[in-house]
Amino acid sequence: MKKIKTVDAIGHILCHDITKIIPGEFKGVAFKKGHIVKKEDIEVLLSLGKDHLYVWEKNEDMVHENDGAIFLKDLTAGENLDFSDIKEGKIDFISNKYGLLKIDVDTLLELNMIDDIMLSTLHNNFIVNKGTKVAGTRVIPLLIDKNKLTEAKNIVGNKKIVNVVEFKPKKVGIVTTGNEVFYKRIVDKFGPVIKEKVEKFGCEVIGQAICKDDTIMIKNAIEDFINQGAELICCTGGMSVDPDDVTPTAIKESGASIITYGSPILPGAMFLLAYKGDIPIMGIPGCAMYNKTTVFDVILPRVLVDEKLTKKDIAMYGHGGLCMNCDICTYPACNFAKV
């Protein structure tokens, strides 16, 4: 810290707040600690009786908090993001699309192990709207050592920690199975639920096939929808382990590769995910009919950003995959199924 003449202070950083007092009208901070003095500030500072100022001594090895925050923003921010104005070394990241938030969690942890900087985000795989604040970065001290920023760059490299991936609506075929529905003994309640949920993401349902508990009939329905241009197949019914629940067998016999039959998500343990080429096929358990939020709500958004999920991706939901069945559901703004 050093004392200099105010008229010589342009470009220097204030070490302390400077108060402005107008008797009977105002008393508060006119210039905050950390403010970089500009040419137009000089006259104002002199009018406040400040012929001298205490400023930080310039050091080429130190970076001002605002410049450091801009560096971190540029280093870590990926696609479909807007940003707040910088304030006291802090910048907010704001989604400019309706999409899925993708966070490089491992690199985020490494970055936050560096002293004097931070990056805070919403959970990975969080559904966000345009205007949602998804992250914020800040430099902790007023001045930061350049070496800390170099360390951050070495960790992050060309990776971007925070991205919003816009949803890619798909053509959806619904295959509903069950003798009770096929023979019209009961009214199907699955189709409307699936239709409502996929249309929320802009998807188009190109049809619903009602099949009896017959492997060949179900397999043919899946293949027919694919031939019609379906980009996602949702199979409902027949997903339990009863002898007449043949939907998983039919999906396998369609030539699809089974990624998982079963998930550590409740509700949704009997979920099936398969791919026929790049086309996802989901076997959706009965809970989706009567639970507001299930495994289907968790996996669908990831499918709609063209993420090809693995067994490990599904297994990771075991930690946090238990829904609390709250009286008022706030998903995705809750702890359910965050990885």
How would you describe what is shown here?
- The structure is a single chain.
- With 339 residues, this protein is of the alpha+beta class.
- The protein has 3 domains: 2-55, Molybdopterin biosynthesis moea protein, domain 2 (Alpha-Beta Complex); 62-165, Aldehyde Oxidoreductase, domain 3 (Alpha-Beta Complex); 171-318, Molybdenum Cofactor Biosythetic Enzyme, Chain A, CATH 3.40.980.10.
- It has 11 helices and 19 strands.
- The chain has helices at 41-47, 65-76, 105-112, 146-156, 179-182, 190-199, 215-227, 247-253, 287-290, 295-303, 311-315, and strands at residues 2-5, 18-22, 26-31, 52-55, 62-64, 81-83, 90-95, 99-103, 117-121, 126-128, 133-139, 143-145, 162-166, 171-177, 204-211, 232-236, 257-261, 272-276, 279-284.
- The chain has a 6-stranded mixed sheet, sandwiched between helices.
- The longest helix is centred in the middle third of the chain and has 13 residues, at 215-227.
Task: Choose one word for the global shape.
Answer: elongated
- Helical content, roughly? 25-40%
What is the name of the CATH superfamily of the largest domain? MoaB/Mog-like domain
Q: Note poorly predicted spans.
A: none
Number of domains: 3
Please give the CATH class of the largest domain: Alpha Beta
- Strand fraction: 25-35%
Give the number of helices. Answer: 11
Rg, Å, rounded:
28 Å
Structural class, by secondary structure, is alpha+beta
The secondary-structure element order is EEEHEEHEEEHEEEEHEEHHEHEHEEEHHH
Query: Which fold name is given in CATH as the topology of the largest domain?
Result: Molybdenum Cofactor Biosythetic Enzyme, Chain A
CATH architectural group of the largest domain: 3-Layer(aba) Sandwich
Largest sheet: 6 strands, mixed
Instruction: Give the termini separation.
Output: 46 Å
Side by side, the strands of the main sheet go: 15-14-16-19-18-17
